[in-house]
Amino acid sequence: MSEDAHPHIVFGTVTETAPLPLPLEFEALWVTNQADFHQYARVVSGNWQAAEATVHRAFLEILNLWDELLQSSNMQGEVWAIFRKTVVSQELNSFREGLSRLEPDEEIGLFRALRKLPPRQFDAVVLKQVMHLETSKIAWYLGVTTRTVDYHCRKAKERLEQAVPSHVKPGRDPK
Description:
Helices cover 68% and strands 0% of the residues. The chain contains 9 helices and no strands.
């Protein structure tokens, strides 16, 4: 078949729209770490599909910060920190989505109220109350001070107390 058979097709545009090549050092980082990153993400998330999405997101974030990371004295530590934050973020989002999929008759007021919390309050409460992390670690994950974490937890508690009837609040006598 000759090029004249399709005069509307412009040849030679493939290289113009092809993605730019990745930096060689970035590719080396990928080859060196991706198997361990996938395994870690799979353990945390419980499935390979979620792990794949998490690792993909993490490496995109690493690529976005690549020039800064190259200047770092602890590049591997910073790469791991980015990866861990991505895993935590993905798991918190998955948890929140899981709450929204509860059937109305399965759903209790606490889950409904938890799902409606602003993202920072939701993250702080889940990391503190569900995952039982220390405030300093939560602050590191969220990139805020420990006082800010305490504030988010306090505000979330206030919202949850307003949304959940007193007869289902923990520690209250239903009499």
